Amino acid sequence: MALEYDYPLFRPPAEANSIIPQVTLGCSYNNCSFCSMYKTKEYSVKSLEEVKSDIETLSSLYPNATKVFLADGDALALSNEHLIKILQLLKENFPKLRRVSLYASTQNIQAKTLQELELLKANKLNLIYYGIESGSQTVLKKITKGWSGLLDLDLASKVSCSKPYKWNSLKTWNKKKGYIKNKKKKYKIIAIDYGIKKNILRCFSDLHCKVKIVPAETSSQKILNKKPDGIS
Ligand code: SF4
After folding, report:
1. What is the pTM of this model?
2. Residue 122 lies in a domain
3. Residue 37: CB within 6 Å of ligand 1?
4. Domain boundary among 133, 158, 183
5. Which residue's C-alpha comes closest to atom 4 of ligand 1?
6. Ligand 1 atom closest to Cα of 34?
């Protein structure tokens, strides 16, 4: 029993030991001037029935697999509804599944809402490989990347929390104790959420800080009115 791949098939080096079902063929953009990876293929989406059959075949061969990479070029181009169905099939067929990853373009990511991305993450899609190639608009234009760069984009509003919340006081992970709570509240910190990483908040807990996270658009006056010892 073997899987019939549509070649060429590419994967990141870190996915050498991963299970690889093809859920799309080629790249939905396929127009970057420097890239010849999928020039021999026309982009298409594999049906859920085909993907289900491939996943079941792979599961019968590697039932204990923990990592899955969804090929081909930019599987994040799929609709969220379609992707969630694939992720559910993976969870059903690989009980030890820890991580699902895929290639994506900046356009794919921008086309999803934050809530859609969070939903994918909650369903174990927790690694996206993508290359912006350059921050220079001139370079991006020359390589026909199909994306005009970061200039004038308001990305903070896309990733920021919608209302203030208090950090749960968990400290950074400890080999013996795992995540434990900080009980000393020596300093009051206001952290502005421009897509803040949880580990930064844990580091504040290590330093005995009480942290409140506020949305990116919170006014400076509102923050200063809370009389924090520090602003992050
Ligand atoms: S988006 Fe990626 S895979 Fe598609 S053409 Fe550009 S570099 Fe190649």
Report:
1. 0.80
2. yes
3. yes
4. 158
5. 30
6. 7
Q: Report the chain's mean pLDDT, rounded to a whole number.
A: 95
- Positive or negative, the CA dihedral 163, 164, 169, 171 is positive
Question: Looking at the domain assignment, is residue 8 inside a domain?
Answer: no
What is the best residue among 32, 33, 40 to mutate for testing ligand 1's pocket, by most ligand atoms within 8 Å of CB?
32
Nearest CA to ligand 1 atom 8: 35
User: What atom in ligand 1 is closest to the CA of residue 27?
Assistant: 4
For helices 80-93 and 48-61, give the axis angle rounded to 10 degrees. 20
39 pLDDT higher than 80:
yes
Residue with tokens 């795992």: 178
Range of the domain at 207: 165-231
Q: Check residue 180 and give its pLDDT.
A: 96
Q: Does residue 109 have its Cβ closer than 6 Å to ligand 1? A: no
In this prediction, residue 148 carries a pLDDT of: 85
Check: CB of residue 87 under 8 Å from CB of residue 68.
no
* Domain annotation covers residue 2: no
On whether residue 6 sits in a domain, the answer given is no
Task: Give the pLDDT of residue 132.
Answer: 86
Return d(Cα 24, Cα 180) in angstroms, integer. 43
Q: Give yes or no: residues 148 and 190 share one domain.
A: no
In this structure, the strands spanning 99-103 and 67-70 are parallel
Give pLDDT tens digits for 146-196: 988 888 888 888 889 999 999 999 999 999 999 999 999 999 999 999 999
For residue 75, pLDDT over 80 is answered with yes
Rounded to the nearest whole angstrom, what is the distance from the C-alpha of residue 29 to the centroid of ligand 1?
7
